[in-house]
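Pilot study result, target chain (449 residues):
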Amino acid sequence: MVAFASLILSLVVGTQPVELLVGDGVVAVELRLDGRLVERLDGPPWSTRLDVGEELAPRRLEAVALDAEGGELDRAEQWLNLPRPAAEVSVVLENLSSGRGAVARVAWRNLFGGPPTGVKASLDGRSLEVDDPRRIALPPFDPASLHLLRVDLLFPEGVVSTAEVTFGGVFGEKVSTDLTAVPLVLEKGSRLPPPRELRRWFELAEGSPEVLAVEEGPVELVAVVSDAARGPIEELVEIGRARSRRLGPLQGVARLDREHHLRFVNSRPLGLLDGGVTVQIFPASQVFDRRDSGLLRLLHEVRPKLRIGPERLTDSVAAAALAAARQNRRRGVLLVLGREGADASGFGADRVRRYLARVRVPLTVWRIGERGPDASPWPVDEVVESPWELAAAYRRLAARLERQRLVWLRGAHLPQGVELTPAARGVRLAGVEAVRAQGAAAGSGARGR
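Predicted structure:
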């Protein structure tokens, strides 16, 4: 009976447009942000502008549909500033009571622009004809029985978005299973106890969570390479070539670990017009692994897809954190710097560091080139002056990533709402070092918003 027509898929702060799809029998809709009532809509147009705050942080936005007596009919939610698909679809059903003349109203958001290239819909496994992708007529059905409607939208670049809605019978509610992955970092020599003993290690605002599983799994490493680092990286390659007549050895310099997946995120955004609002997207490269090459060669050869407009390095770090957390795996962001100049970012480094801490993504900063003072607001973990120092820096980074573990909790929780209790021993939440680094940067006179 209620769904979001405006799906917020990029990193946002401040005032954002919110538009709803509202079905029959709804007389009011309450909008709640992180569980707090922020606005009530008492009729069409079912739209408003909502202030989500100036701090870059994960948010939970809910729309609660009410009847004439104030009872809850339905609710929809979307999570802001957390990993989301490149495209999403929402469905609201109308005229269900009689089983005839029912319609599915469909809304979507595609960050790469344009309508879907294909639409598939089915009711109880039987394909439906779709003349208008925004309004799909349903065939007659028995209102006393349970039914499943599935809508698949196909977009360019192989993106597929799916919505499934159950209705009818006594099971006429949407059904979903929600889990939250919490990345922890083990101290050297530490081990996690079995899941049943971990419950007292975590706390939520609403009580203790249920711990379902602990896993290791692959590592998602997302790198951002600044323009100023390109020249020093070229110098590293020349140093390596001077020691060998063949390029081959460079392929093995800092070869990726077996379960490490590496992507590069542009330091310049692509501006996409979506619903009258320009959304800034930082394109990412394909995924590289151990079979592709060593890290030095990848840093040298993988070039940005865009070279238009000023560099927005700090904003791209936030986008990289979002990409690193998307697969719910062990994760990290690698920022590769040179001698940095101007940065046209909308967010400051301190605000982005707080964001990385909230989404539990560790940040590692390398500077390629000679040691010495630097005006960058990012505290540097490693200064790399040769191919062999780069290999050693990667080994230390890989060792830190290997100490991560994912703890799966039942339920959907904001990442910053999950904390460790005093019972937790030998571990820390991944990403908290980003805020510690903020204090170090402030002490050195770094500036940020």
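One observation from the pilot: The longest strand covers residues 72-80. A full batch analysis is planned for the follow-on phase.
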